[in-house]
Every structure is written in structure tokens, then in C-alpha cells.
Amino acid sequence: MDNGPESSGIRTQFLKRIVEFADAIEKPIQLLYFPPYHSKYNPIERCWGILEMHWNGTLLSSVDVMVNWAKTMLWKGIHPIVEVSTVIYEKGISLSKKVMREIEKRLIRNPKLPKWDILIEPMIAS
Q1: Domain boundaries, the chain
Q2: Residue 96 and residue 98: Cα distance in Å, rounded?
Q3: Quick one: which of 45, 55, 120, 121 has the most CB atoms within 10 Å?
């Protein structure tokens, strides 16, 4: 993950949604963040660079234009799957300390890198 503020290892809403997702798919999820200022090692950052070169000079005048251009790019010979998310997440909402303590119980943080290496095991319904 790119360690942007929306997906950092301390964001309460993000972690809550990822725990819920792990439970829904019944698979473990490992969150590995790149430390700040290490984007050159992050594969998604290289992908963004290729996308920027692909649509360089194009007037991105609407969402449809952007989506269609993104669909035509190639990265390692593969076209991406591009979808527009219309979900609006409320900003400024954080979990109470009590609720976050319950979420934290589900997070297995690497003791050497607790902000950058988090394992979430699913709670499988029986």
C-alpha cells in the first residue's frame, strides 16, 4: 500500500472496513505499507507513472474520458479493470476508543514495524 493518509495503518475507519472485508471474504489480509518517501519502490506508483505518460496531453474533460483512457493503457501487457466508484465516504468520522480497541484486537501488528506491517485474520462464521 502507498501509505497515503487515506489508507494508513492508524486510520480507524479504513482499518474497520478492511477487518469487515477480511471477514466477508473469509481470507487473511496482510497490509504492508511503504514508509513515507519510498514511492519509487511501490509498484502502484510505477503504474500511475505509466498511466500519466499514456494520457499525456489528453484533455481529461469528464469522468468518461478518464475512464476510457485508463482502460486503453497497458501495463506489463495487461489492460486494467477500471470502474468508477460513486460511494461517498463521510470525512472526519472516527471510531470511539472502545470500538477501536475491539478492532485492534483483530490486528496482528509486526512488533518491529507496527505501523507498516499488519495481518488481519478473518473471523469465520460457523
Answers
A1: 5-120
A2: 5
A3: 120
